[in-house]
Amino acid sequence: MAQKKISIRIDGELVPALEGKTILEVARGAGRRIPSLCHMDGLKDVGACRLCIVALNGGRLVPACTTPVQEGLAVTTNSPEIAAYRRMIVELLLVERNHVCSVCVSNGHCELQSLATSLGVTSVRFRYRYPSLPLDLSQERFVLDHNRCILCSRCIRVCAEVEGAHVWDMMGRGIHSRVISELDQPWGEASTCTNCGKCVQACPTGAMAEKGWAVEEMVKRTAQVAGAAVRKGVSL
Amino acid sequence: MRKITIDPVTRIEGHAKITIHLGDDGQVARTQFHVTQVRGFEKFTEGRPYYEMPGITARICGICPLSHLLASAKACDAIMAVRIPPVAALLREAIHCGQIVQSHALSFFHLSAPDLLLGMDSDPARRNILGLAEQHPALARDGIALRKFGQRVIERIAGERIHPSGIVPGGVAAPLAAAGRDAILQELPEAVAIARRTLELFKTILDGFRGEIEHFGRMPTMYAGLVDAAGALQLYDGQIRFKSATGGIVAQIDAARYNNYIGEASLADSYLKAPYFLPLGYPDGIYRVGPLARLNVADRCGTPAADIELGEFRQRCGAIAESSFHYHYARLIEIVYGLERLEALLNSPLILDRHVRAHAAVNALEGIGVAEAPRGILIHHYRVDERGAMKWANMIIATGHNNLALNRSIEQVSKHYVHGERMEEGMLNRVSAVVRAYDPCLSCSTHAGGLAPMRIQLVGADGAVLDELAAGA
What are the distances in angstroms from CA B427 to CA B165, B167, B328, B413, B450? Predict the structure, then answer.
């Protein structure tokens, strides 16, 4: 069945859209820059990070990645208020765990870091929590460092939706949430893991990395994994 | 009993204070050197992957991160049990030469030259790099240019000037480009000229410091430093040679066996451990490391101009230079050596080779890496589990080796220069200056040289402040 063509306004400009698409897809298709972390092309969206918030009809804030377009909708993609919220979200991500860029394998190639830079997060107004979190070094080729995880769940989705292995899940609630492999087994003991590394390449930070790389050396092949996901068509 | 406190000691890297206890007769009874900061790197790296250690431990220091990077990368090489490609060793040593030059230039020009050229008793408000720039502008410019040269060597080979990412377990991250090599070689003659004329200048003022030479830690101790198989000076790799106070070789060991020869004592009121030569016990096993010790233990430097200078050094100061004041002299000779060695390395036909890194996982559960930091022998010793997680770390930082010698030097200087209840700033400055001679890196972090406030208090037995001097701004 062909999708119905509708029109919405993005920042005042009339934009044609297909019904069923999300605001994020339509807005980015129209050349708007909306920041995001948990969204990855080709994967189902979950609205975890809230960085893509936009204002509907000048008022209510919603995540663009999980809100479908409707006829006559007016979307504001940026405003001083939205920018302030986005900065606050990044600050909260930074205080929640132990993000030490200077000694991180992903320094210089990190989505969280570049987002913080582009949003102008020059300082953090909240107290750092400095939680004591473990590393999982049990996998032969890869390492999981919970200190650098932002709970975007891209690893979980790419494993389940693209690789079809579904090694990863989320355990706990709220700030105590943690990515686990199988039923909280060490990654190296997860019998379902195919060793493909898609989770590592999909990870926006240094939380998942290939073993053996020194500071600044882990360059993720996120675009290739996203391309594979889009071709597989899991999000349609 | 009265007590004088120098807190903080200025123009050094890190935080320290000195207390001088005066007896009832007004003479110095005893002194103590306190390092007032704790860093905790050995503890908080537990659980991290071993290959992150170079990046993490480099942050111990902003002056000589390269030394930590090298010692740490070498410990990681040992854990991976790999032979790094030959060109990687050359590049690491070349970077290290840049590091030695810039760190020694900082110590001499920025931190100690104000004492040496403006005078120990000169106005403390102007006794700093800015005062130096007013009275000896050419020398100050030389110092800044030489430090910059060293920093640019590091930047061109390893990526960044401070905390570069180019030194990695298994070798170096990227090969050297011909353009980078040529740029360094082009700037090298100017750096050599600065090093040579500064050394000549230093030799002309040396006779003006007879008193300081006599009392700045002139004492019999052992010396330790790295040497190559032929007994020549080594900064990147080699065996640890221990020499006695009279110049006999007491031991020459593979760095990996340091445990059998170096013990570590804890001192009251200081966070800095005090290593000693284990066979002699504590505190008789006192030894010195750093430029002075390196020139004392090495048979020769191994480069032409530095060897000529070393010959003159030994004529002036003896086969074993005993006074810690001569750290300055030795440091300037090492700058000459570092530049000569750098030139030789860059002219090696192998230096542009593109195979610069060996890859491996954990093959040994323990690794020890040693390098000569600008201030002396630096040891990184790691233990990991089969997965590569750090289980234990021990790092013996260069300044630590000198802890006992620093304490003894401070006492010697204080007993000679500090008398009575009336304080003169100049006499207390000499107490600080002997610390600067060692160029200690207490924190291992960059501080604004000469600008930190110095507070000196004379405290009575009842705790009342009898007199106070403040310097700096």
Answer: 44, 44, 20, 9, 17
Look up residue A128 and give its DSSP letter.
Answer: P
**By CA distance, what is B362's nearest residue in A?**
A212
CB-based contact B72:B170 (threshold 8 Å): no
Q: Is A36 helix (H, G, I), strand (E, B) or coil?
A: coil
CA distance to A191, B93, B106, B142, B297, per residue, from B131 (Å): 69, 35, 16, 15, 36
Q: Return left, alpha or beta for A107; rule: phi > 0 is left, psi -120 to 50 is alpha, else beta.
A: beta
- Comparing CB atoms, the residue among A105, A135, A212 nearest residue B361 is A212
What does the pLDDT look like over B113-169, one tens digit per residue?
999 999 888 888 888 888 999 999 999 999 999 999 999 999 999 988 888 889 999
CB atoms A135 and B59 under 8 Å? no
Is 3.30.70.20 the CATH number for A88-231? Answer: yes
Which of B45, B50, B52, B56 is best to mutate for the A interface (most A CBs within 10 A)? B52
Chain B residues in contact with A216 by the CB 8 A cut-off are 165
Beta bridge pairs of residue B376: B373
d(Cα A158, Cα A41) in Å, to the nearest integer? 10
Domain boundaries, chain A: 5-78, 88-231
Q: How far is A214 from chain B (nearest CA, A)?
A: 6
Query: For residue A188, what is the nearest residue in chain B, using CA coordinates?
Result: B387
What is the DSSP track for B358-391? -------SEEEEEEEETTEEEEEEEEE-TT-BEE
Tell me the sheet residues that pair with B275: B264
Q: How confident is the model at residue B463 (pLDDT cuts 50, 70, 90)?
A: low
> What residue in B sits closest to A107 (Cα-Cα)?
B165
Cβ-defined contact of A103 to B55 (cutoff 8 Å): yes
Across the interface, of A137, A140, A215, the residue whose CB is closest to B55 is A215
**In angstroms, what separates the C-alpha of A3 from chain B's closest C-alpha?**
51
Contact check, Cβ <8 Å, A215/B54? yes
ipTM: 0.85
Domain B83-213+323-359 annotated CATH 2.60.40.10: no
* pLDDT value of position B398: 84
**CA of B127: how far to CAs of B1, B183, B211, in Å?**
31, 35, 20
The pLDDT of B14-29, averaged and rounded, is: 79
pLDDT tens, position by position, A85-111: 999 999 999 999 999 999 999 999 999
A185: β partners: A181
Smallest Cβ distance to B56: which of A103, A134, A135? A103
Average pLDDT value over all residues in chain B:
88
Residue B266 has what DSSP assignment?
P
Rounded Cα–Cα distance for residues B224 and B244 (Å): 9
CA distance B15 to B442: 6
Interface test with A, best of B51, B385, B390 (most A CBs within 10 A): B51
pLDDT at B342 over 90: yes
All structural domains of chain B with their residue ranges:
2-37+402-471, 83-213+323-359
Instruction: Name the fold adopted by A5-78.
Output: Ubiquitin-like (UB roll) (3.10.20)
Q: Do B47 and A135 touch (CB under 8 A)?
A: yes
